[in-house]
Design brief:
Blueprint lengths: L20 H17 L3 H17 L8 H21 L3 H6 L4 E6 L2 E4 H26 L3 H10 L4 H30 L10 H32 L18 H23 L11
Antiparallel strand pairs: 1-2
Helix pairs in contact: 1-5, 1-9, 2-5, 3-5, 6-7, 7-8
Length: 278
């Protein structure tokens, strides 16, 4: 399978794919909660490694999601640079000490505390990214929607989520088609032109894409109304999967991480694990 430009379901036969969609959502929310609660480097590194192990278990190949991974990595690096640009001594404020490495100019001093703080930010993202990708690319939209409905989410909202997930590949295909059409007209968005020119030329692709998407939304909306969608209080689902023991075990294990995060907050006297104060 070719690499995906955006996030879409990738069918495989793995233990991750066989989990209930709602169970995967609950696990993802618990996993994210544990990461949001603490900046303890030990837990974050453990969850990062575990996330990549789960990715391996899912049988998803890196080449299938590499473009998404690269895009996320670029935004992550930019975020780290912005943190240093707007708050170069944030690490010093958090950890209460200052160990200078070298000075750039003014208040822009590279310190051990700032590097450690930004390292924690880095692994925070990378402990969420694999699991977030897994949730989207191993869960079939229809099965996920039916699972949401089973746990009490209104079927109208569940169906909206299903359509959104299904529509991602369609937007991808439209973008490629429109992009090729624009390039045939001489609008170059390749690496052969300057970055500013590429950004300007991409806008010629995005505008038709937006109008095309709005047109498809209108068509889908009218089709749903004509078929009487929303008239009944309940509906059946083409794909549905009941909760199994493996789903309960997965939720229980992920909940343990939240408990560990809360314990570490107590042990560290706060959210941050301070290696500079003994």
């Amino acid at each position: 399978m070719a690499s995906t430009f955006l996030l879409e379901y990738i069918e495989k036969d793995s233990i991750i794919h066989r989990l209930n969609g709602a169970a995967k959502l609950i696990c993802f929310l618990l996993w994210t909660t544990a990461i949001m609660l603490t900046y303890d480097t030990r837990l974050l590194v453990f969850l990062t490694v575990l996330g990549f192990i789960l990715f391996k278990v899912s049988k998803i190949k890196f080449k299938e999601i590499k473009i998404v991974f690269y895009l996320i990595s670029i935004f992550l690096i930019l975020n780290l640079l912005m943190i240093f640009l707007f708050s170069p001594l944030e690490g010093t404020k958090i950890y209460g000490t200052q160990h200078d490495i070298f000075k750039i100019f003014g208040n822009y001093i590279v310190t051990q505390e700032q590097l450690f703080y930004e390292f924690n930010i880095f692994i925070k993202y990378f402990s969420v990214i694999p699991v977030g990708l897994l949730f989207v690319i191993t869960t079939h939209p229809s099965e996920f929607a039916s699972s949401l409905n089973r746990i009490g989410v209104p079927y109208k909202f569940s169906y909206a989520v299903s359509i959104a997930l299904r529509y991602i590949p369609t937007v991808q295909e439209d973008f490629i088609t429109i992009s090729k059409a624009q390039q045939a007209k001489g609008i170059d968005i390749s690496k052969n032109v300057k970055l500013t020119t590429r950004i300007k030329n991409i806008s010629y692709t995005l505008l038709p894409l937006i109008f095309s998407s709005l047109d498809k939304i209108d068509v889908i909306s009218n089709a749903m109304v004509l078929r009487g969608f929303g008239k009944k209080n309940k509906r059946t689902w083409y794909q549905a999967r009941k909760m199994k023991t493996s789903d309960i075990v997965a939720i229980f294990i992920t909940a343990i991480f939240v408990v560990v995060a809360l314990i570490l907050i107590k042990v560290n006297n706060g959210r941050f694990y301070n290696i500079f104060v003994k």
